[in-house]
Design a protein that fits this description.
The chain is of the alpha+beta class. The protein is 54% helix and 22% strand. It is built from ten helices and 17 strands. The strands form three sheets. The chain has a nine-stranded mixed β-sheet with strand order 4-7-2-1-17-16-11-14-13. The radius of gyration is 59 Å and the shape is rod-shaped.
Length: 608
């Protein structure tokens, strides 16, 4: 008992000896802490923010915090701002004071870090991740451990409730780390697949101001997936404007070419208008010719009938003269004189009819000839036609143009082949009328001679001469009548066949009218094309400048994500991760460790 008491007294004495120095040390530590608080106002040269966000496997936000980093210029008290639910010093043990959104901290190191936790703060991007296996939509939990054909769809869009500055200026990179033991036949449209050791790394990139839509497909075995990572940084790369001198030169050539096409189509339109006018004239001339040939055909029967009467009269007179002159008296000669004069008058009327017919035919033929000649003789080659097809013109209009052009040229060529026959009709009519005029004059002369010499003539001699004259006249007239019948038959056939020709010309007229309307529309189109491409080089340069300005974010000035009051913000970055989809490993029970005793516990154990 005495020995135990001595030991207790010895320990107490030792403790009393150590206690003063312990108190002095604690006092020094307290004074050191107070010295840190008395450093005064500090300053920093720049501030960096890294925003960390955790999402569930489908992209819904679960947690967010910000790590703030200051480059200290002057140690001391610094004020920062942010609607944090809690803050934590990551540099030393100095306490951080928080008054609502006002954060006061004391920094003495060259770099100072602290963390602020956020609740209810959204990211600048809405993120959605969906999964399908063998064509069936499944939740991440349902996918776990399954085999089959996997499809992962990742969608990103602007969150309009957040400052658009980040969405408009930040490049979003999406990365998936895939175990090659689980994933095979990986395909990622609009993405890159690279080897990363035993794994495969798939990367997608979303440009500023753009929505993202990406699909990854793969064959999976015993499905698991690491976190999908989203990293957002400012798109600060500077884009140099490309040298488009050669391209602008080509665009100038294209602009000139469209202008030439428009000019050519304008000339084509004018040519088609002339063609249409010519075809219209052709139709009018054809109508006149058709009417004239119909009148000619209609009068042919009367003409033949009249000629047949004359032929019969000549035959009758010739036969009557074969009687003996002794059987004839003065009254018979008077009748013969009268008959000759009537016959001469009939031939004269026939000659007038033929002359009038010749004039009408000449007018119709002249109108037809002028109309045919008005069709342009443009030599449009097959190469020109193919070039017109390739010019982008309306296919239907070009088909009408080609069809009408070919029909017009065929009509012109056909007329050229029959022009000689048509031209021969007028002279033939004129010659026939001349023959009738001569026969009429001969009959009139015979009648005059017969009437003047009736009392003093030698009847036998005169009758013999008259008989011979009438026989010759009758014989010649038979030939004339036969030719007249052939001619009128030809006119009737021409009149019948020309109905089809005139119908074709009418269709041609309708076609050229439609063609002119189509050519006018075509010219309007090429005029619009030429107008829109006239300043094509300038338009191209403007588009290039616009594209460069759209993606060149080198002039972007960062701002704080958590508060507009924060100053000297040099960079703001986002690190976003989805929750991994993995099997839960069974936890092994570890042997309980003996709780470590404190100094006082060990001290008191000495007294037990």
């Amino acid at each position: 008992m005495i020995m135990k008491l001595k030991r207790i007294i010895a320990v107490l004495m030792a403790f009393l000896l150590v206690m003063p120095s312990f108190l002095v040390s604690a006092e020094k530590n307290d004074s050191s802490s107070e010295g840190n608080q008395d450093l005064g106002e500090g300053s920093y040269s720049e501030k960096h923010e890294v925003v960390y966000a955790k999402l569930n496997a489908t992209g819904d936000q679960e947690e967010m915090y910000v790590v703030n980093n200051f480059n200290i210029k002057e140690p001391g008290e610094i004020v920062d701002y942010g609607p944090y639910t809690s803050v934590q010093n990551l540099t030393d043990l100095t306490k951080i004071k928080q008054d609502n959104s006002r954060i006061k901290l004391t920094a003495k190191e060259e770099e100072f870090y602290y963390q602020g936790d956020l609740e209810g703060q959204s990211l600048p991007w809405d993120i959605n991740v969906s999964y399908m296996l063998n064509g069936e939509a499944l939740s991440p939990e349902e996918l776990l451990g399954k085999d089959g054909k996997l499809k992962v769809q990742i969608e990103t869009a602007q969150n309009k409730e957040v400052n658009p500055l980040f969405y408009n200026n930040y490049l979003l990179q999406i990365t998936l780390q895939l175990d090659s033991k689980i994933y095979e036949n990986i395909k990622a449209s609009n993405g890159t697949v690279a080897n990363a050791g035993k794994d495969r790394r798939v990367t997608f990139t979303v440009m500023p101001e753009k929505q993202g839509s990406f699909t990854l497909t793969s064959d999976v075995t015993d499905f698991e997936m690491e976190s999908i990572e989203f990293a957002a940084v400012p798109s600060s790369m500077s884009i140099d404007k490309p040298d488009v001198g050669g391209m602008k030169k080509d665009m100038n050539s294209l602009s000139d070419a469209t202008s030439e096409i428009n000019q050519g189509v304008g000339e084509l339109q004018n040519g088609i208008a002339e063609l249409n006018n010519g075809v219209a004239s052709l139709y009018n001339g054809s109508a006149q010719y058709k009417n004239g040939i119909n009148e000619l055909s209609g009068g042919s029967s009367k003409l033949v009938d009249g000629s047949a009467s004359i032929q019969a009269s000549l035959q009758q007179m010739s036969e009557s003269l074969n009687k003996s002159s002794s059987d004839m008296n003065l009254s018979d000669f008077k009748k013969m004189e009268e008959g000759l004069r009537q016959l001469a008058g009939g031939l004269k009327e026939t000659e007038k009819g033929l002359t009038n017919l010749k004039d009408q035919y000449g007018k119709a033929q002249n109108a037809l000839s002028q109309s045919i000649d008005s069709i342009p003789t443009s030599d449009i080659t097959e190469k020109d036609i193919q070039a017109l097809y390739k010019s982008g013109a309306d296919q239907k209009v070009v088909d009408q143009l080609v069809e009408t052009y070919k029909a017009a040229q065929k009509t012109k060529k056909t007329y050229e082949n029959v022009k000689e026959a048509h031209n021969a009709v007028g002279p033939a009519l004129e010659k026939s009328a001349g023959s009738l005029n001569e026969m009429s004059a001969s009959l009139s002369t015979m009648a005059d001679n017969l009437g003047n010499n009736l009392e003093n003539m030698n009847v036998d001699e005169s009758m013999e001469e008259l008989k011979k004259g009438l026989q010759a006249l009758s014989s010649n007239y038979n030939d004339f009548h036969a030719g007249l019948k052939d001619y009128t038959n030809g006119v009737n056939e021409l009149s019948g066949s020309y109905q089809d020709i005139h119908g074709g010309i009418a269709e041609l007229t309708n076609g050229t009218q439609e063609l002119e309307n189509g050519a006018s529309e075509l010219h309007n189109g090429t005029s619009e094309l030429a107008s829109s491409t006239s300043d094509l080089p300038e338009q191209m340069q403007k588009e290039i400048d616009q594209m460069v300005n759209e993606y060149d974010k080198s002039d972007f000035d960062p701002v704080s994500f958590v508060s507009s009051k924060n100053e000297k913000v040099t960079s703001v970055q986002f690190v976003i991760k989805t929750k991994s989809i993995k099997k839960v490993e069974e936890e092994k029970e570890e042997p309980q460790k003996e709780e470590e005793k404190s100094f006082w516990d060990r001290l008191m154990a000495l007294f037990s």
